[in-house]
Amino acid sequence: MKVGYLGPAATFTHLAVSSCFQNGAEHVAYRTIPECIDAAVAGEVDFAFVPLENALEGSVNLTIDYLIHEQPLPIVGEMTLPIHQHLLVHPSRESAWKELDKIYSHSHAIAQCHKFLHRHFPSVPYEYANSTGAAAEFVSDHPELNIGVIANEMAASTYELKIVKRDIQDYRDNHTRFVILSPDENISFEVNSKLSSRPKTTLMVMLPDDQSGALHRVLSAFSWRNLNLSKIESRPTKTGLGHYFFIIDIEKAFDEVLIPGAMQELEALGCKVKLLGAYQSYQL
Amino acid sequence: MKVGYLGPAATFTHLAVSSCFQNGAEHVAYRTIPECIDAAVAGEVDFAFVPLENALEGSVNLTIDYLIHEQPLPIVGEMTLPIHQHLLVHPSRESAWKELDKIYSHSHAIAQCHKFLHRHFPSVPYEYANSTGAAAEFVSDHPELNIGVIANEMAASTYELKIVKRDIQDYRDNHTRFVILSPDENISFEVNSKLSSRPKTTLMVMLPDDQSGALHRVLSAFSWRNLNLSKIESRPTKTGLGHYFFIIDIEKAFDEVLIPGAMQELEALGCKVKLLGAYQSYQL
């Protein structure tokens, strides 16, 4: 079994893949989220494992938009991971870490530590990398540069960097949700037996144009069936300012009656509705 | 009158400031969105002019989160600008623009041209700058590097760069909304007389914890009053995965009866409600 993930080694996605799958799965790193999803579509890997949402920074727009507009792969599972951000430097720079010239990481990791950076490194510029792992790899390869990187513990050991400040995220309760995508929506796989799980169903709903109150009617269809929504998220349809679609998470397994009933009703109201996945949500 | 904006010169925000205000306003560039907002709070400038939402890429999270969590400045106006992205290079590199080593710009600008880059520069890495203007300035200062920058026409003339490919955004209908913030919510200002305008009211609503269907009840409060919502956007509260607040735009001036009535009702339901601004929305 092959699992593609947003690499390189030791990204948070890699940490999530390693915590989720039983031994025996082969992990294949991709440089970007679209490349990873494309690889699952092309059959190079059985699954694409990519970040979807962080508790502090919100949705990973690239994942949502690529799934909706480019490669509509079903969601076959989800994994939630606690996120701890640390400040890492090259071992040869350990004593001088308070005088960094630059801080390098993924834009979400930098945003999660914005207050810390503002307080401790107010005038140090930062630069964005494709992933925390890629940033750590770069710092490891460039001992001549006095750069700090924000990344996880796995990155410190993989790239032999020193953790000079632990848990620098601005808010304590930091988690990220990752989705597991596969072209085969009925694919079965074994996960780490220590994980707990609960069922979930995710829909995409696009409202009819220019109907005042349409979202209210959409939510009514779920409300009167007692379908609890754990999330509703708006994203632009890319057809003009003010046009949105909605991603709706229902805290319930897909059934034969209630969810299909709500979907049919929404279509009758003129909405475009799509089932993005009915799956188990795992956590440690 | 002094207006702070996300600089340096020739960013899209600068273009919006120049299109919005009458002659006589002094424009002051800031390096980041938080610095620009902080300057308005400190009284260094009368207004902060910052991007809020793009039609392709969605909300500028940094602006929304900074307004909600750090510096609650009232919105006193809004400006919508059509966005045209071009590929620019240093004039000495014009003939070799198809063999770029790197593409540099703001992350939103790169995301807006994702398909173009995927098709024409599939293996060229990109790097993120604080703004399109900062990226153009860097390319102008480094003729020795073979870098392309995605930016606007004003950046091409300000930094003396060559436009080698025009209108490279992936979707035609590309606009960005900018908000005008001021510590004085009753401040009056004159705008370019060619702009059209319409009134708008923006609220922040935080739902009570763990109430299934709470968002449906919130929308009911607007729906039965015939208050048309042009936008509803969810953002994480940063207190844990699954906790959101909502930004709601109402297509109506703040009045004495309907909007205050809806706000009181939401508070009675256990929501936290805040008026972020009642203002005019301008466009060319």
UniProtKB/TrEMBL annotation, chains A, B:
<keyword id="KW-0028">Amino-acid biosynthesis</keyword>
<keyword id="KW-0456">Lyase</keyword>
<dbReference type="Pfam" id="PF01842">
    <property type="entry name" value="ACT"/>
</dbReference>
<dbReference type="GO" id="GO:0009094">
    <property type="term" value="P:L-phenylalanine biosynthetic process"/>
</dbReference>
<keyword id="KW-0584">Phenylalanine biosynthesis</keyword>
<feature type="domain" description="Prephenate dehydratase">
    <location>
        <begin position="2"/>
        <end position="183"/>
    </location>
</feature>
<dbReference type="Pfam" id="PF00800">
    <property type="entry name" value="PDT"/>
</dbReference>
<feature type="domain" description="ACT">
    <location>
        <begin position="203"/>
        <end position="280"/>
    </location>
</feature>
<protein>
    <recommendedName>
        <fullName>Prephenate dehydratase</fullName>
        <ecNumber>4.2.1.51</ecNumber>
    </recommendedName>
</protein>
<dbReference type="GO" id="GO:0004664">
    <property type="term" value="F:prephenate dehydratase activity"/>
</dbReference>
<dbReference type="InterPro" id="IPR001086">
    <property type="entry name" value="Preph_deHydtase"/>
</dbReference>
<comment type="pathway">
    <text>Amino-acid biosynthesis; L-phenylalanine biosynthesis; phenylpyruvate from prephenate: step 1/1.</text>
</comment>
<dbReference type="InterPro" id="IPR045865">
    <property type="entry name" value="ACT-like_dom_sf"/>
</dbReference>
<dbReference type="InterPro" id="IPR002912">
    <property type="entry name" value="ACT_dom"/>
</dbReference>
<dbReference type="InterPro" id="IPR008242">
    <property type="entry name" value="Chor_mutase/pphenate_deHydtase"/>
</dbReference>
<keyword id="KW-0057">Aromatic amino acid biosynthesis</keyword>
<dbReference type="InterPro" id="IPR018528">
    <property type="entry name" value="Preph_deHydtase_CS"/>
</dbReference>
<dbReference type="GO" id="GO:0005737">
    <property type="term" value="C:cytoplasm"/>
</dbReference>
<feature type="site" description="Essential for prephenate dehydratase activity">
    <location>
        <position position="176"/>
    </location>
</feature>
